[in-house]
Specification:
The protein is α/β, with parallel strands linked by helices and about 400 residues long. The chain has twelve helices and 24 strands.
Length: about 400
């Protein structure tokens, strides 16, 4: 259902309460999401973004209730990914000649997805679309988080349409930050940043500084997923600057996978050792084979150090362990320390492999790996506790 954001701006998107996975199976959305599309009605009318492809027909049908489609003068595609542009093919059946404003990379992305040669108008930072009383100013935001991404700033109402920037996968009603559950909201914000934007933190800082340098008044930030930031919108900008600056809390995350509980016991005793050496540090322990991978990655993002452990299997490590390590590597975390551990029966390669993967991921390795044979006995578990104590001292 559409709702008025301001006198000129109407939200015409879709709240997806049922969504559980995103980017295929890569991202968990425990709280659903929203696909935010905005209709701006001035002397000229512009539609900013659409919704995900499965809701295309529904989107067009609902949009017709708000406006005669022929009265849409322009479409702005801030990003070509199909969760934003997915309804374009259905919409363009009705208004095929309507100009679509996007970056040059946006044209390539949209053509690559839909193989249509629509009426594209390429824009770059500083270009302006005059709607009458208000103006749309475009700001390229490359790699936040795709090469084609841009922001659109609306004068008068002073709204930044930020696409994937400052968003979160979070279904709530009403879609305003001040009316949302604040714990849920900021958890989904940091999860979104950790899992999607971390590799682009340098770009985040530079782009925010660039936009702040324009000295534009800001009443609202309208991202493409989650809440509209109307109450102190600068708060999420400040969070992004904090998260982009090699973020860490006083936390250690221990990640393990286990076949017969030996590696689990190692993880727990290492944790006990850390706790004995440092009563102030927060310790979190996760089984990578059970725990949601994106929730684990969020905790890695928050941590100053991690330990990863797995048993040796077929001269390698378990599927869950190598999977989480591959995701960690892709996210390019900065300013974090690490060590490895594991159990084995006869060959014992797992801790060495984990250590190598952590080093490739950019972590500072502060301890040689520890490994224990078969199911660790009391003597072995005491070695694990001592290992945890030594690790705690090395990360202080």
């Amino acid at each position: 259902m559409a709702f008025k954001v301001t006198d000129k701006v109407t939200w015409v998107g879709k709240v997806d309460w049922m969504l559980k996975k995103f980017h295929g199976e890569e991202y968990s959305t425990h709280k659903g999401s929203s696909y935010n599309s905005f209709l701006i009605q001035d002397k000229k009318t512009v539609l900013i973004d659409t919704v995900w492809q499965p809701f295309a027909k529904e989107f067009v049908a609902e949009l017709k209730k708000v406006i005669d489609l022929d009265k849409i003068d322009y479409i702005v595609a801030n990003h070509g990914e199909i969760d934003h542009s997915g309804a374009l093919p259905e919409l363009m059946k009705h208004i095929p000649d309507t100009p679509i404003y996007c970056t040059a990379n946006g044209v390539r992305s949209l053509k690559g997805h839909y193989h249509e040669d629509w009426n594209f108008v390429t824009v770059k930072t500083g270009d302006v679309l005059d709607l009458g009383e208000s103006k749309q100013t475009f700001v390229e935001a490359r790699m936040l988080h795709w090469p084609d991404t841009m922001f659109t700033y609306m004068s008068g109402d002073n709204i930044l349409f930020s696409n994937d920037g400052f968003g979160q996968h979070y279904a709530t009603d009403p879609l305003y930050n001040d009316l949302a559950d604040q714990d849920e909201l900021f958890h989904e914000c940091i999860k979104y940043y950790a899992n999607i934007l971390t590799p682009f933190s340098t770009f985040v800082t530079k782009k925010i500084e660039e936009v702040l340098g324009f000295n534009l008044p800001l009443n609202m930030i309208c991202p493409s997923h989650g809440v509209i930031w109307r109450d102190n919108p600068a708060q999420i900008v400040e969070k992004y600057l904090e998260w982009a600056n090699n973020y860490q809390e006083n936390q250690v995350t221990i990640i393990f996978d286990s076949m017969w509980n030996g590696t689990r016991r190692m993880a727990e005793y290492i944790g006990e050792g850390i706790r004995e050496a440092d009563r102030d540090v927060s310790i979190k322990i996760f089984n990578a084979g059970i725990k949601d991978k994106n929730d684990i990655l969020t905790e890695v993002f928050k941590s100053k150090a991690i330990l990863v452990g797995a048993p040796t299997i077929n001269k390698g490590i378990t599927y869950a362990a190598i999977g989480i390590l591959e995701m960690i590597k892709g996210l390019s975390f900065k300013n974090k320390k690490a060590a490895a551990f594991g159990t084995y029966g006869w060959s014992g390669e797992s801790p060495k492999i984990i250590n190598e993967e952590l080093a490739k991921a950019g972590f500072e390795i502060v301890s040689e790996p520890i490994k224990e044979l078969w199911n660790p006995n009391e003597e072995a578990l005491l070695r694990c506790k001592d290992f945890g104590k030594e690790f705690a001292e090395k990360i202080k």
